[in-house]
Amino acid sequence: MDLNSSAKVICDCMKDLIDSTQKKIRSFLIGKQKQEGEKLESRLDKILDKHGVKDEEQRRKCEEVYELAEYISGLLRIENLSSLKLKVSYYTKKEVATNLLALGETGKRGEFRLYYTSEMNDPSEGKILLNFLEIKNENGSELPENIPFIACFSLEENSLNQFRLYGKEGDNEATGVSIVFRYSFFENYDLYRCVYINHEGKFKVSFSKENEEKEEVEVDKTQEGIEEHFDKLKELCKELYGISKEDIKPKLLVDLLIKIIYLVKDSAFEEERECRIVVLKDIKDLKNKKCNLGIDGNRMYIIKEDVQEISDHIEKIYFAPLTEGMETFEIKTNVKCIRSLHPYRGKKPIV
After folding, report:
1. Are residues 139 and 112 in the same domain?
2. Which sign does the torsion angle of CA 51, 55, 58, 60 carry?
3. Among 9, 25, 43, where does a domain finish?
4. 18 lies in the same domain as 65
5. Which structural domain range is residue 35 located in?
6. What is the pLDDT along the chain (351 residues), one digit of tens a residue?
7. Same domain, yes or no: 118 and 97
8. 106, part of any domain
9. Are residues 230 and 149 in the same domain?
10. Cα 132 to Cα 76: distance, rounded to the nearest angstrom
11. Same domain, yes or no, for 201 and 300?
């Protein structure tokens, strides 16, 4: 098309471009949606077959529970990290950060791990949502169909409370670090907000303090919607039990809800403003060694495989008030380090 073309010629060219591409784009999107739908349907069928659910009404109710859990997880998924200007941090020991960022004796750096949900710091992990839904999974002796592996982050980059709780060296508080990741770190993994529930059954979605102050309307709207969906989920679970309580075992409901079980926490932890990566791995793939599975003591983990140079994905690292060796660490890793200046037990922070 000539640069001096008339408006009509330009419009005709644009129309031809739209006509030639819109079918392909629509076909691509429909195909992708169909593929995702088939994937969810396949997972659901595996779960129902595993538990021997054959009755049509039971299967229909199970599908409603499963789809609502998927929908809730979609609402909690954090989209457009950069536009929200969120700071996503990982509180850990300085030793872990050193292994991730500094070359070891083998000439290699460590890998970022997502752990299976056993032996976590909070003993109520995985139980809070089930308690709210009045699902009694007494022993939990059987592994779910899809095994959840998670990595825990915070929407607060420099929190004294979390420095006191996490990353402690020799059980001494405020001796860890906070790794602030760039948005590129989460490109291939979904990041979800956690939800906190109190003893009255009230839900609070995890937002940063800055978001709560600046986006009050959006936060309130999200809060209201989440409570409605969880109440609906409780209603559906009761209906499912009402069909045939003998046939509907708690383990079936755990499998149906596995995507969101580990996104719901006790309100005692709400100051952590937590968000998580949750990756589900088919138990058969794990047993057949089709996943990059590792074992650390009694804990299973998988590796975040898309990370080549993890330092490229780190914006900065906060050193807790009493964490030593910041200067040496920065020289060794070439990552910007900042001393947290929170006062701690009347002691001046190391500077």
Report:
1. yes
2. positive
3. 43
4. no
5. 1-43
6. 555 666 666 766 666 665 555 545 444 443 444 445 556 678 899 999 988 998 898 899 999 999 999 999 999 999 888 777 889 999 999 999 999 998 776 677 888 999 998 767 677 888 999 999 988 766 555 778 889 999 999 999 999 999 999 999 988 999 999 999 999 999 889 999 999 999 888 999 999 988 887 777 677 778 888 999 999 999 999 888 776 555 567 889 999 999 999 999 999 999 999 999 999 998 888 888 777 888 888 889 999 877 778 889 999 999 999 999 999 999 999 999 999 999 887 566 676
7. yes
8. yes
9. yes
10. 18
11. yes
Number of domain units in the chain: 2
Structure tokens at 88: 């996503």
Query: Considering only CA atoms, which of 192, 191, 174, 195 is closest in space to residue 182?
Result: 191
- For 133, residues 6+ apart whose C-beta sits below 8 A from its C-beta are 233, 234, 237, 253, 257
Neighbour-count burial of 229, counting CB atoms closer than 10 A to its CB (0-12 exposed, 13-18 middle, 19+ buried): middle
28 and 69 housed in the same domain:
no
| Residue 344 counted as domain residue | no
- The pTM for the full model equals 0.83
Listed in sequence order, the DSSP H helices in 51-93 are: 56-76, 81-84
154 and 205 housed in the same domain = yes
Assigned token pair, 34: 């169909």
